[in-house]
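seq as requested:
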Amino acid sequence: MTTANGSQVDRSAEVLGRLFDVRDVRAVVTGAASGLGFAMAEVLADCGARVTLADIDGELLEQSTRSLTDRGADARASVVDVSDSDRVQALFDEVVAEQGGVDVVFANAGIAASPGFAIEGGQRIDTVEREAWDTVTGVNLNGILFTMRSAAAVMRRQGAGRIIVTSSVAGLRPEPVVCYGYIASKAAILNVVRQAALDLAPDGVCVNAICPGPFKGTRIGGGATLDPDPETEQQWVGTVPLGRMAEPEELKGLVLLLSSPAGAFITGTAHVIDGGAAIATP
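struct tokens:
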């Protein structure tokens, strides 16, 4: 005999399974070797998606992908420099040839050349160098566009798909902790997302952006290591009303929402996940 509580548990599992089911979804995540990109790939893989992790760091990518396959996840690695449009196209050609299509793409790869002027020795407007500017925008803007373009071509043919772009709170307002190329590129891709959402809506493709605030486990604003030094962390914490930096784990719910049936009517939006940083008084 099934108890009332048992029936409720069964109903809850059925509803959650129906809303957030990503089993067998064919997903591509760029910048997936570490940080937020790995969190995206991990939650999709753990929930049954078939995930291709792409990153320029081949050694770290192999380690991260193996950490998923060792526990039974369906995951594969592809070394990709997203600023190389031919290599991005080759990535999608490979995935389509192997899996028959692409359902969800996280255009996540991003870099920052240096800290911003709020950090001692950081970049000021009169110290912006062309090479650094071109490097950052080459990944954060051109690389995102190349990824979206290749994904859109596949999804138009399918008549369905999801493209999710990683922007930043720094794309919504000034962020003195990061460099100029970073804030410029992250702002620009938000309007690209809106334009593409209109463009692709008739084809059944949803396009959205995620705007993270300060997260641990990334190199953005934190120098060469995955976590910022204590002084830089305090700079970040001071911008967040909740009084702390986030962990990559805290991004996973939003990733699952935008990838699953629960997000089927969401497009052209920028989802801020920042502990209140965007609404804080400077």
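The chain has a mean pLDDT of 93.
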